[in-house]
Write a structure and sequence with these properties.
Blueprint (H helix, E strand, L loop, with lengths): L8 E6 L4 H16 L4 E8 H9 L10 E6 L13 H11 L1 H10 L6 E5 L5 H6 L5 E5 L3 H8 L35 H7 L5 H13 L5 E4 L7 H10 L4 E3 L22 H5 L6 E5 L8 H14 L2 E5 L3 H11 L3 E4 L4 H5 L4 E6 L3 H10 L3 E3 L5 H12 L3 E3 L12 H12 L4 H21 L4 H14 L11
Parallel strand pairs: 1-2, 1-4, 2-3, 4-5, 5-6, 6-7, 8-9, 8-11, 9-10, 11-12, 12-13
Helix pairs in contact: 6-9, 11-16, 14-17
Length: about 475
């Protein structure tokens, strides 16, 4: 990604303090450091996250041009935040901005630009108050961004038609708005629920603040979401750059088929090609115990081999007892490398955006089990638009649980290499795999966009005084 080096400019990156946000921000920072544009990057994290990154070996692998800086642990711990993510979101809104601003004021050299996670409600204002260009990073699908951007145009779920004569006559109906064709009325109902009132208020604030940003980055691939990305380009008053998939794909280079130095590698190596279902529900998603049990029993009934990442020790023991010799349960793994292993032929996932992008990058079909927020839209992209998987949420019972029998049937279908639907999902998954990998190669859509962003930063084209409104 070479370009003529300019005089060194200092970029400060501030991710939302969660694994699903920090990881893509770090990928973008690595790419900026590698762009040969004379950019150095300081990534701001809490003291807790600094320790977590060090323990995981991430800090030691950062390029010379990328360093970490810390703020105090003014928010609650990363551990267990899934049990009250709304409270965590509100704490980030109320408590994190002030220490970040103090850090901005004492950093040397002075920041020439700030890349902030879009969900940091105070991020744009912090940069604007100091005359620093602000670039907003959206770490979820462009489709979900556009849905939230247009939430004032959402049709009523109940009651009379909206101003444009649109309404949700059925919760199973897709929103009658062309660029939101992957969002259903049932998704809107969840986002409009009383429990979501405060988060949606903050999101409205976020999108209002975006009008003062100098640009927006998307951790997506143009070829995967061209309709949504084109729609965003028409409504935002600033440049946009698609730089995804913002996943740690660099670790696969030259070692895509073998996982070294891990205890589980021998087990994976011993399984037939495409025979293993990888199971993971992310770093903090809270899945009810009754649903976890249904997943485990359904997998047992399907007789499909599976590799399950379960971080809770008690859960790990229970799952291993249920799985017997058909499955392996571990507390952690390198997810992208496992998905890229030849023995892995499917992914049972909560459909967080990073996990979804890693499945696409590995060319693995998905059995989606979304819990909430953008996962609902991600699962619809997977099953309905991209057609690389099955959305199990569509088959929930009245109590909200997907049954043991339903899971067994879905797993069997997804992993049956003789089934016509499964073969078609695999063909489509392979197409998207090639598209996502081509995007980051020299000349690809994401490569060109990232180069353009790095160049614009280095040459000062995104400076506040040069941005018209």
């Amino acid at each position: 990604m070479a370009m003529a080096a300019a005089s060194g400019r200092h970029v400060v990156a501030v991710p939302y303090p969660g694994r699903g946000h920090i990881n893509p921000m770090l990928v973008v920072c690595r790419q900026l450091a590698a762009a040969d544009a004379g950019l150095s990057v300081t990534v701001v994290v809490t003291e807790e996250w600094h320790a977590l990154l060090a323990a995981a070996g991430v800090s030691a692998t950062l390029p010379d041009r990328v360093r970490l800086a810390t703020i105090p642990n003014v928010i609650r711990s990363e551990h267990g935040r899934g049990a009250d993510w709304v409270g965590f979101f509100e704490a980030v809104h109320a408590k994190m901005g002030e220490p970040v601003e103090r850090l901005l004021d004492r950093l040397e050299p002075r920041p020439d630009a700030v890349v902030v996670d879009t969900y940091l409600t105070w991020g744009v204002a912090a940069g604007a108050a100091r005359g620093i260009p602000v670039c907003s990073l959206w770490t979820m699908p462009a489709t979900f961004f556009l849905a939230l951007y247009h939430m004032d145009r959402w049709p009523p779920v109940d009651g009379p038609e909206g101003e444009e004569g649109q309404s949700c006559k059925s919760l199973d109906q897709y929103i009658p708005f062309p660029v939101l064709s992957s969002v259903k009325c049932s998704d809107i109902k969840i986002l409009r629920s009383l429990a979501m009132e405060l988060p949606m208020k903050r999101v409205a604030q976020v999108f209002s603040n975006l009008r003062k940003a100098q640009c927006v980055l998307f951790a997506s691939v143009y070829e995967l979401e061209s309709g949504a990305i084109n729609g965003i380009a028409q409504v935002l008053p600033c440049p946009i750059y698609t730089v995804g998939p913002s996943i740690p794909h660099m670790s696969l280079e030259g070692n895509s088929d073998k996982i070294r130095h891990e205890k589980y590698s021998d087990w994976l190596d011993a399984q037939p090609k495409n025979s293993v279902l990888y199971v993971s529900f992310g770093s903090h998603v809270s899945v009810p115990s009754s649903q976890l049990e249904a997943f485990a029993m359904g997998l047992h009934d399907s007789a499909v081999r599976f590799f399950w990442v379960a971080r809770d020790k008690a859960v790990t023991t229970t799952l291993q007892q249920i799985s017997g010799d058909k499955g392996l349960v571990v507390p952690w793994c390198d997810q992208l490398k496992v998905l890229s292993h030849p023995s892995v032929g499917g992914f049972l996932s909560h459909c967080g955006w990073n996990s979804t992008m890693e499945a696409v990058f590995a060319g693995v079909p998905v059995l989606a089990s979304p819990v909430g927020w953008d996962q609902l839209v991600n699962a619809r992209l997977v099953a309905d638009e991209w057609k690389i998987g099955i959305n199990s949420r569509e088959q929930r019972r009245e109590d909200g649980i997907v049954s043991r029998a339903t899971i067994s049937a879905a797993v069997t279908k997804l992993m049956d290499l003789a089934d016509g639907d499964s073969l078609e999902m695999r063909r489509r998954a392979e197409e998207l795999r090639e598209a996502s990998r081509s995007a980051i190669q020299e000349g690809g859509s994401s490569w060109r966009s990232l180069c353009s962003f790095a160049r614009d930063l280095a040459e000062g084209k995104l400076n506040v005084v040069e941005t018209s409104r």
